[in-house]
Amino acid sequence: TEIGSQKDRVVTEEEWLRKWQMGNIGFHKERGHPLLQKYLDILLNGRSGLRIFFPLCGKAVEMKWLADMGHSIVGVEVSEQALKEFFAEHSLPYCEEPVPEISGAKKLQSTSGNISLYCCSIYDLSSSIAGKFDGVWDRGALVAVNPCDRQRYASLMITLMQKNCSYLLVTVSYDPNKHKGPPFYVPESEIKSLFG
């Protein structure tokens, strides 16, 4: 296949948590992603006060940047450490509450109310819990999802999108036989078949 030996690769939740614990987070960008700055107009499309979703958000600095512009940010991340580091690194006060619909999940929300980060598996989230979104910044989620889970991921993302939602997606291009991932190689043809 086009994705070579990656097709059956599975990275467990425990492995992701270990990456955060060990500080093995080369995927985190301290300064924000240049592609978001470059294509911000496409994401916003002249609109203000958007609800913007960050799947597998980690401690992405862009969440604060967009919140400071007046948007509401919702993220989901399995690592509570990542979410707490986000609030600490931006000196943002927050409160924590359980998410009754998801066993063991928490929502960490800035006291200003414009940043809500869910600590749980993305697959436990739904539009009935998190609502729908005007924009999605998928900088490292689709490429981190196990290849066998991509269809499940894309189907969930589609249910979270408002009708006029803008979805910015960053992928990486390389020979998948030379690197086992993540980030995984997602060919353009597969993106088209996943999202239509």
C-alpha end-to-end distance: 20 Å
Structural classification: alpha/beta
The neighbouring-strand order within the major sheet is: 3-4-5-2-1-6-7
Overall CATH class? Alpha Beta
Characterise the protein shown here.
This is thiopurine S-methyltransferase. This protein has helices at residues 13-22, 34-44, 62-68, 80-89, 127-130, 150-160, 188-195, and strands spanning 51-54, 72-77, 94-98, 106-110, 115-119, 133-138, 161-169. The longest helix is centred in the N-terminal third of the chain and has 11 residues, at 34-44. With 196 residues, the chain is an alpha/beta fold. The protein is globular, with a radius of gyration of 16 Å. It has one domain: Rossmann fold, CATH 3.40.50.
Attribute tags:
7 strands, alpha/beta, single chain, 196 residues
What is the strand and helix layout of this fold?
Elements: H1 13-22, H2 34-44, E1 51-54, H3 62-68, E2 72-77, H4 80-89, E3 94-98, E4 106-110, E5 115-119, H5 127-130, E6 133-138, H6 150-160, E7 161-169, H7 188-195
What's this, in brief?
This protein has helices spanning 13-22, 34-44, 62-68, 80-89, 127-130, 150-160, 188-195; strands spanning 51-54, 72-77, 94-98, 106-110, 115-119, 133-138, 161-169. The chain is of the alpha/beta class and 196 residues long.
